[in-house]
Each structure stands twice: as structure tokens, then as C-alpha cells.
Design goal:
By secondary structure, the chain is α+β, with helices and mostly antiparallel strands. It contains nine helices and twelve strands. It has helices at 65-76, 100-115, 124-135, 141-146, 185-190, 198-216, 222-225, 240-251, 289-296, and strands spanning 7-18, 22-41, 46-52, 83-90, 149-154, 161-166, 172-178, 256-258, 265-276, 282-286, 304-307, 316-319. Helix 1 (65-76) crosses helix 2 (100-115) and helix 2 (100-115) runs antiparallel to helix 3 (124-135).
Length: 327
């Protein structure tokens, strides 16, 4: 297949997976984005420029995850593997459980979709399959690609990865509480047991089903719906501060969970009204506001509080007209 463009721009959201009981299945896209520009070159070689999160830390050559994903997608449809110039403006923290690797993989695949002459060759089903093969599981890749909240699964007969959007009530406000420390997904998964008691599995299934109802129609049920017995407490040894914050917020009635593999904490807060700040700007209030103030006591210690909303668009790419400069 030939290329249909040589310069594309991509925007991809952060994601939070699991949401408590939905281990490796549920996820939600958040309004925190990486923005990229990709230019296909007529000469071999790869140049990568990164600003923001990960600058100076991630590879600046063929090993960059966006480049790997783009190459994988182009190879899948038989498009030429050209030289590339990649510019990344990253806002998604790395190693914090906000789907930075899934964002990079999805961004590369969506960029390839925009570059090729027949974008339908990399439709959402194909893109999700390629992303899942690279990521190992679809819980972050699905919302990053499709937007909104999603449930993802593998077909028991064919193994094909599928995903469906699920509703999120307007009163549900995601608040990411991001620590200054990193934690690799490998380390977080390494502490999980190989088997779980039947009673815990049954509990988890019930809570995951309840969470779909709580997200879409009954935000008042979010606290019990986000209870988990499968992975969070098992990870306490590698993210004690995060679990202590989860405990404090839940004790105050806030539906707080570990975001993905952590160590970010995600509060699925409920909108309670509006308030006017000292700057005169009207902002929404949630049931997490006072609980977060009490938890930190004015001393953030490297943590950042990011009030967000649900990104309903997912990854988006556009072709840049010929002659437009990069950046």
C-alpha cells in the first residue's frame, strides 16, 4: 500500500485502567493529552524530538515506542517503512499508571492510519488488535483509541480483542492525584498472586458489574462499586503512600482507586455544585475537594492534583497540508 500523506498531527489521551474491580478490562480516557507530529521522509533514518514528560529519558531513535508502533502498523498493511521525523509534546506522566505507553502505541498506529492511502485498512478493530499485541492487554489501549469509558475483552473462540463504550454520568468527575515517584508496570504486576480465592473472584465480578451501573446511571453507588479484592491491597508493599491515600479518601466517602498499575490515585468524584475562587473563576465542586485538602493538609510533598474530565473523542489524527512547517 502506498502512503497518502507525508505529514500528520496526532492527539491522544491519558487513560486510567481497572477503576478498582475491572482488572485488565475497564478503562477511561482522560482530558490530559500527548500531541505529536509525524513527517515521513524520503531518506532513511529517524529523528525524535520530545518536550514535556519523558524528555531526556525516552529513546530518540527507532526504539521510541511511537516509532515502533507506527512501523508495526505500516508493516501490517504493507506500506513503505520510510524515514521519519517525530515531534512529541507530552503531558501524560510516565510510569504513573496513566497509560503513557498505551498512548504512545495508539498514537503511532493512528498516525500510520492517517499516513496511508487507505485508512480503513487500519480501522478501530485492527488498531485495537495491534495495540493490544504490543501492550499485552487492552484496558488502556481501548479508551485511548475510542475515548470515553470502555470494557475490553478477548473472544473465547477466536482470541480477537474487542471493546465497547460504556456510559459515564455527567456528575462523575475524574481527579488524578499524581505522585512524584515512578513505578513500572512490571514491578506492580510482579507482586500479584497467581491464584485468588473463589470468594474474592465472585466478589470482584459483582463489583465490576455494579461499576458499569454506577458510572452510567448511579454515581451514588460509586463507593461500593469501586471496591476491589484482586490487585490493590496486594500492591501495598510497592506503593504504600498511594494505598494510604486511597484509604483516606475512601474513609471520607470518596470513590478512590489506584490508577492502572499505579502509583497515581484516581478519585471518581461526584459533582456537588459550583464555587467561585478568589480569582473570580467559577469552578465545579466535588465530594473529593475537602477530602483531598484534609489528606494533604496543605503539604503536597511532590504530589499533583489534576481535576480532569472524561475524554469522549479518543485518539485523533489529521493530515497536515503540504508545505506546513513541523511544530
Amino acid at each position: 500500500m502506498r502512503l497518502g500523506a507525508d505529514h500528520v498531527r496526532v492527539r491522544v489521551p491519558a487513560t486510567s485502567a481497572n477503576l478498582g474491580p475491572g482488572f485488565d478490562a475497564l478503562g477511561v480516557a482522560l482530558t490530559l493529552h500527548d500531541e505529536l507530529e509525524v513527517r515521513a521522509l524520503g531518506t532513511p533514518g529517524v529523528t525524535v524530538e520530545v518536550t514535556g514528560e519523558g524528555a531526556g529519558e525516552v529513546p530518540d531513535d527507532e526504539r521510541h515506542l511511537v516509532v515502533q508502533a507506527l512501523r508495526t502498523a505500516l508493516d501490517h498493511v504493507g506500506a513503505p517503512l520510510t524515514g521519519l521525523h517525530l515531534t512529541c509534546r507530552n503531558a501524560i506522566p510516565h510510569g504513573r499508571g496513566l497509560g503513557s505507553s498505551a498512548a504512545a502505541v495508539v498514537a503511532g498506529i493512528v498516525a500510520a492510519r492517517a499516513l496511508v492511502a487507505d485508512p480503513d485498512a487500519l480501522d478501530d478493530d485492527t488498531a485495537l488488535a495491534l495495540a493490544t499485541a504490543m501492550e499485552g492487554h487492552p484496558d488502556n489501549a481501548a479508551p485511548a483509541l475510542l475515548g470515553g469509558a470502555t470494557v475490553a475483552w478477548s473472544d473465547t473462540g477466536t482470541g480477537a480483542v474487542q471493546a465497547a463504550r460504556i456510559a459515564v454520568h455527567d456528575d462523575v468527575v475524574p481527579v488524578a492525584v499524581v505522585p512524584g515517584t515512578h513505578l513500572s508496570t512490571k514491578a506492580a504486576r510482579g507482586v500479584l498472586p497467581a491464584t485468588v480465592p473463589h470468594a474474592d473472584a465472585a466478589f470482584q465480578a459483582g463489583r465490576a458489574a455494579l461499576l458499569v451501573e454506577a458510572l452510567g446511571r448511579r454515581p451514588d453507588l460509586l463507593l461500593p462499586a469501586t471496591e476491589d479484592r484482586l490487585h490493590q491491597q496486594q500492591r501495598r508493599a510497592v506503593m504504600r503512600d498511594s494505598l494510604a491515600l486511597v484509604d483516606a479518601l475512601r474513609a471520607a466517602g470518596v470513590a478512590a482507586v489506584v490508577s492502572g498499575a499505579g502509583p497515581t490515585v484516581l478519585a471518581l468524584a461526584r459533582r456537588t455544585g459550583k464555587t467561585t475562587g478568589p480569582d473570580g473563576v467559577v469552578r465545579g465542586r466535588t465530594d473529593a475537594d475537602d477530602a483531598l485538602t484534609a489528606a494533604f493538609g496543605g503539604v503536597m510533598g511532590g504530589w499533583r492534583i489534576l481535576p480532569l474530565t472524561v475524554d469522549t473523542e479518543g485518539a485523533r489524527a489529521e493530515r497536515v497540508p503540504a508545505g506546513r512547517p513541523i511544530g
